[in-house]
Amino acid sequence: MDEIWDCVIIGGGAAGLSAALVLGRARRRTLVVDAGEPSNAVSHGIGGLLGHDGRPPAELYADGRRELAKYPQVEVRDGVVTAVRRDDVFTVELGDGTVEAARRIVLATGMQYRLPELPGVAELWGASVFHCPFCHGWEVRDAPVAVMATGARAVHAALLLRGWSDDIVLLTEDLGGDDRALVEAAGVRVEERPVAEVRGASDGLDIVFSDGAVLARRGLMVAPSVGQRSALAEQLGVRFGEANPMSSEAVWVDEFARTSVPGVFAAGDVTVQMPQVAAAIAAGAKAAAAVVQSLLADEFGLPVPAWKEYENV
């Protein structure tokens, strides 16, 4: 702790590396600590990212690190942040026992997907099982696909995926009459038999029902929830946003990527605004620009909107 970093970014995925690039170009001493567990690591490619469409995530992150190497103020370190304390500056403890000090923190830890507890889903996740049609819909265009969800998410997911395929089976239970009429009017077949497992097939997957019947599909879209990867957000005392069907653990941020705790910013999936690489890159850049301006406010009186304190909810 001989020197104080202008910013420590926790997480080296799309949001974290993007934030580090902006901070490096702003000549700010920046440390990125990356646990190396991006949520899209198993994906065959990134869908819909301009200039990198279909590129494996690992390649994108490796290139991002190489770009950051041009900026001497930025260091990327593999490791895990185990604790962060807020005093006059932030004290950041790493799993290897090292301790760093920072004026600002950016939470870019991403989120952990909590998949349906159905045999076979985890093994096929990121390939024939997916959750985002904007990321993976093109790969299953005009093919037979299935959607597994319940309640309002079932209707939304089935009708959303309808833009990519006209052969959709909705795997659900207790679908109300109005909802059933809506999806069936869109050409979606509703299947309420219990599903026992999913199995990989040569061209997609087989959905096995509890009665032994098998439904062959090119892909299966599921509706997972997401949660915090670590206790750091809670430890820092940041406010969480209102619960939604996807998560009750999303970090709340204002329009400047600021959390409810002064000095702590957040970007990417950890805020669950749009879990997509393109959105995470944009959010990281936005958070970094806000960090730079907040530092300049401390140093030279740059006018910035006041930071508001909020009670955690």
In short, what is this structure?
26% of the residues lie in helices and 27% in strands.
Q: Output the helix-strand order.
A: EHEHEEEEEHEHEHEHEEEEEEHEH
Q: Please write the CATH class name of the largest domain.
A: Alpha Beta
Oligomeric state of the chains in view: single chain
How many individual β-strands? 17
Corresponding CATH architecture of the largest domain = 3-Layer(bba) Sandwich
Radius of gyration: 22 Å
CATH level-3 fold name of the largest domain? FAD/NAD(P)-binding domain
Structural class, by secondary structure, is alpha/beta
Mean of all residue-level pLDDT scores: 93
Question: How many domains comprise the coordinates?
Answer: 2
Secondary structure tally, helices: 8
Biggest sheet, open or closed, and with what strands and sense? Answer: 7 strands, mixed
Low-confidence parts, pLDDT < 50 over ≥5 residues? none
What portion of residues belong to β-strands?
Answer: 25-35%
The helix fraction, in percent, is 25-40%
CATH superfamily of the largest domain: FAD/NAD(P)-binding domain
Fold and architecture overview:
The protein folds into 2 domains: about 5-115 and about 225-300, 3-Layer(bba) Sandwich (FAD/NAD(P)-binding domain); about 115-220, FAD/NAD(P)-binding domain (3-Layer(bba) Sandwich), CATH 3.50.50. The radius of gyration is 22 Å and the shape is elongated. The chain is built from 8 helices and 17 strands. By secondary structure, it is of the alpha/beta class. The longest helix is centred in the last third of the chain and has 24 residues, at about 275-300.
